Amino acid sequence: MEEKDKQYHKIHIAVENFGPIEKAEIDLRPLTVFVGESNTGKTYLASLIYALFHTFEGFARVPLPHSIITLLKQSRFRSQKEQDKETLETLNKLNTLGRTFKYSDFPKWLCTHINYYLNESEYIGNEFKRCFNLNSVSDLIRFTAGKGNEMKVSLKVSEEKQSLWDFEMKDFDSDITVDGDVNADMILHTKGETASQKILDLKDLDALLHVNGAEVSDCYYLPAPRGGIMETHGLILGSLVDRTTRIGSGYSSETPMLNGRTSDLLKHMINYAEYDKSSGELLDIAKTLENEVLRGVIEVTRPAGIGFPQFRFRPQNAEQTVDMSRSSSMVPELVLLVLFLRGIVKPGGTLIIDEPEAHLHPKAQTQIAITLARIVRAGVRVIITTHSDWLLEQIGNLVREGEVMKLDEDFIDPPTTWLTEKEVGAWRFHADRPVEEIKFDLITGFEPQDYGEVAEELYNRAVDLRTLLMKKMGDGKIE
Predict the structure, then answer these.
(1) How far, in Å, CA of 175 to CA of 173, rounded?
(2) What is the pLDDT of residues 400-427, one digit of tens each?
């Protein structure tokens, strides 16, 4: 049984005094789950992942901003006589049989650009302010325990047998410092004696800096108020268009602004192209979601004179479509997931979803868990926040199925959707102590302890009230 997580780098993220979070350390898995009470930092950490992803334009072997990629592309078109001495030495090392090619073998000009990029506090700070809609990064310093805290954010990227690069940001009283470093001894390529005699060039250097040539470094965020966004997206987009022509005419610094996650989402909606280079497997997942959960189809049109697409819902066996504001609350919540699977997300990408169970019946919540597992099987990394016991129970069942398949290759009637314990990471968030990992348990799955405590409290209260009611009825006080 193939394990999908082998195609991903190992991503370790740690924070201290970040928003409502005292301390947290997590490892991204093919499916990463954040659970816990409200206002404990689940969305903050999910948003941080999004900000880090966009800061470094993915979690490749080496963080590559567009400026560096442009330099590499420009170098490809130079003749051998025009290329600088360092670049020629790099290509010679790359094409030496039996020689291990390391990061330190790259031209110094390339390493200098990458190091500057990793240590540029202003650029990194601006991305954080954009994603969180802040005037200052210092506003993220833990706001639940008074002043005097120092915020720390660290990111470590590695492969199975070697570290790749790391980054750390600290902020104390508006004093931001950043420190990033790439492992100079990182092994990128070994051209063995039996390897192909093909001469490698600058185009191949670009591929060496990524996991593999097919990796997609895109990250998408579906925020919790999806229904409201879909019901009013036309109004929101129209207002954005108006604003582009009215700068200086009544708008001020006090005008409410969208955070970067929501504005990025709206850009995807403005430029939405149906079935554009989508994975067949992801398209199938979207169709199943429409048929089995929504029980209808999402239709996309571009009316004449309108600069953005319109999204409407056609229930099964219905002749007419309905506006999102007139459909069940479940529909606007799931529309974005369907649309992203149909035309935006690709294998190798990352999809972050806040509360995918919102406004769903318990049965539909279990179906969403299956959908998430299918997305993972299609090669997309998924990160969710959730309050749903039903969804967690189903994820636990999917892991049990995967573990049975690992132990029994002759498993009768194997399921089409499954997960393994190694592929799923679950973390519980607290209001008064550090985030902790929820280890998979054969009996309870990924159920947080407080879920059981709430259920027990409700049961005990029901027993007490039922006993009291029966006693009062026996006394003749209730007919």
Answers:
(1) 6
(2) 999 888 887 666 666 778 999 999 999 9
Tokens of 286: 């979207």
List of residues 6+ apart from 430 with CB closer than 8 A = 36, 37, 40, 436
Q: How far apart are CA 87 and CA 107, in angstroms?
A: 6
Residue 375 CA to residue 28 CA, distance in Å, equals 16
The amino acid at 229:
I
pTM over 0.85: yes
> In angstroms, rounded to a whole number, what is the distance separating the alpha carbons of residues 180 and 115?
7
Read off the pLDDT of residues 126-150 as tens digits, 9 standing for 90 and up: 999 999 999 899 999 988 766 668 9
CA neighbours closer than 13 Å in the CB half-sphere of residue 133: 13
Contact 30, 8 (CB under 8 A): yes
Rg (CA), the chain: 26
CA 242 centroid distance within chain: 31
Residue 145 has a CB neighbour count (10 Å cut-off) of 12
- For the chain, what is the HEC assignment? CCCHHHHCCEEEEEEEEECCEEEEEEECCCEEEEEECCCCCHHHHHHHHHHHHHHCCCCCCCCCCHHHHHHHHHHHCCCCCCCCHHHHHHHHHHCCCCCEEEHHHCCHHHHHHHHHHHCCHHHHHHHHHHHHCCCCHHHHECCCCCCCCCEEEEEEEECCCCEEEEEEEEEECCEEEEEEEECCCCEEEECCCCCCCCCCCHHHHHHHCCCCCCCCCCEEEECCCHHHHHHHHHHHHHHHHHHHCCCCCCCCCCCCCCCHHHHHHHHHHHCCCCCCCCCHHHHHHHHHHHHHHHCEEEEEECCCCCCCCEEEEEECCCCCCECHHHCCCHHHHHHHHHHHHHHCCCCCCEEEEECCCCCCCHHHHHHHHHHHHHHHHCCCEEEEEECCHHHHHHHHHHHHHHHHHHHCCCCCCCCCCCCCHHHEEEEEECCCCCCEEECCECCCECCCHHHHHHHHHHHHHHHHHHHHHHHHHHCCCCC
* Nearest of 189, 207, 197, 201 to residue 80 by alpha carbon: 201
pLDDT at 354 over 70: yes
- pLDDT tens per residue across span 285-327: 999 999 999 999 999 988 776 667 888 999 998 889 988 878 8
- Pairing of β 381-386 and β 350-354: parallel
Q: What's the token pair of residue 262?
A: 């929501």
Q: In this model, does residue 350 exceed pLDDT 60?
A: yes
Centre a 10 Å sphere on the Cβ of residue 319 and count the other Cβ atoms it contains.
6
- Alpha-carbon span 385 to 429, nearest angstrom: 10
